[in-house]
Design goal:
The model has no long low-confidence stretch (mean pLDDT about 95). An eight-stranded mixed sheet has the order 1-16-17-15-14-11-12-13, with helices on both faces. The chain has a seven-stranded mixed sheet with strand order 4-3-2-5-6-7-8, covered by helices on one side. The two termini are about 35 Å apart. The chain is about 25% helix and about 30% strand. The chain folds into two domains: about 190 residues, Rossmann fold; about 140 residues, OB fold (Dihydrolipoamide Acetyltransferase, E2P) (Beta Barrel). It is of the alpha/beta class and about 375 residues long.
């Protein structure tokens, strides 16, 4: 294990990070080491990457006044937004974009949101980096029900101020009086419609409304490890597939990949990704929209010796119906579990172990340097 440091000038006041030095020495990692050693996987280890500049997507609040706008996160222990212009975990392009945005707000007198009075226009921003170019896909979330000509004029001026910085500019309309960041209406203003990322050799399509890993360097390493764990000519069934980034990135090693996801926006990205693949690879991929529980019957039709179920659930872990099916179904002999929720994973893991599975591989990935959080990749095989 190395000694990774962030050394951010905002650390003392910003709530974004809980660790500034030795960010790879985590209490959660000690807990995970103990858990896996007790459950037959003493070979557990963690992969690390860059401690700084790793965040390729940021969601930031916009508060303050026209004369002194604040774009950033909450100060520690408060609900007060602070500027974080020198954030060390942000990709440098995000910091540059936020400085341009701050000047734009002041120049055109765009009023930041006041969450107490529910007044003001500009609520939040989301900035996503296209790594190959360093360009920013910018989403401006506004407290409005429509977009007038004046707003479009101001957005055109923002684009023209630094045309070499922007990948695209979007608006999202949100007039709700709560802390939900996005509304339901997305408006493409200028630039490219889709953002493309190369992940494990494949071009993956992303929409600003779709989920995107913030740390693409570590996500790429995770994908490479998943591909290594798959048998040749795997029959892969992926639950919680999102835009299909995992399935599409490992399709070269599979004879069939079925992706299951609830989000309809994600399916559009999946379809664009398939169009970018060679016909031979694209025909191996399919997408089923709906809850995981709605497609459990597919477990009964997997190829013997080649079938792999891949799950990448939210923090709360597997749906009860899916976990029960994985415990009871004898057609499936391999599970790959990607976890962002350590507590839920432990419970799901114990259920699988009691049902006759064992841990064949376990590994951690430091996706969020600065936090006490790790992503878990575990491979399970059914005991014969």
């Amino acid at each position: 294990m190395s000694d990774l440091h962030i050394q951010c000038p905002h650390f003392d006041i910003c709530s974004g990070c809980t660790r500034n030095e030795y960010v790879d020495h985590l209490p959660m990692l000690d807990d995970a080491n103990h858990f896996f050693a007790e459950n037959g996987a003493p070979f557990f280890k963690m992969q690390t990457g860059s401690a700084t500049g790793w965040r390729c997507r940021a969601k930031l609040a916009v508060r303050g006044t026209v004369a002194a706008p604040l774009i950033g996160l909450f100060a520690k222990g408060t609900h007060q937004t602070i500027n974080i212009p020198q954030c060390r975990v942000h990709h440098p392009a995000i910091n540059r974009a936020m400085e341009i945005l701050r000047k734009w707000i002041m120049q055109y007198k765009i009023e930041p949101y006041d969450e107490v009075a529910a007044t003001g226009l500009l609520r939040y921003v989301q900035a996503s980096v296209e790594r190959k170019s360093g360009h920013i896909q910018l989403v401006i979330i506004i407290n409005a029900k429509n977009v007038d000509d004046e707003a479009r004029h101001h957005l055109e001026a923002l684009w023209q101020a630094v045309p070499d910085l922007w990948h695209s500019i979007w608006l999202n309309l949100n007039t709700r009086r709560d802390n939900i960041i996005f509304g339901n209406e997305w408006i493409h203003i200028k630039g490219s419609f889709w953002l493309w990322e190369t992940l494990n050799r494949q071009q993956i399509c992303l929409h600003p409304a779709s989920f995107m890993q913030a740390n693409l360097e570590m996500f790429d390493r995770l994908l490479q490890r998943i591909e290594h764990l798959l048998p040749e000519d795997a029959d892969l069934l992926e639950f919680y597939a999102g835009v299909g980034a995992i399935g599409a990135s490992v399709v070269e090693k599979c004879q069939k990949v079925q992706c299951i996801e609830l989000n309809q926006t994600a399916q559009k990205c999946f379809e664009e990704t398939c169009r970018a693949l060679s016909p031979n690879l694209a025909k191996r991929l399919s997408y089923l929209q709906g809850k995981s529980a709605d497609h459990i019957n597919l477990l009964n039709f997997m190829l013997v010796g080649k079938g792999v179920v891949l799950v990448d659930p939210p923090r709360k872990g597997l749906e009860k119906e899916l976990l029960k099916a994985l415990c009871e179904n004898k057609c499936v002999n391999n599970i790959i579990y990607v976890s962002c929720g350590w507590a839920a994973f432990q419970g799901d893991c114990q259920s699988l172990l009691k049902a006759g599975w064992h841990i064949a591989h376990a590994e951690a990935f430091l996706f969020f340097p600065g936090s006490d959080h790790i992503e878990i990749l575990a491979a399970f095989e059914r005991r014969i």
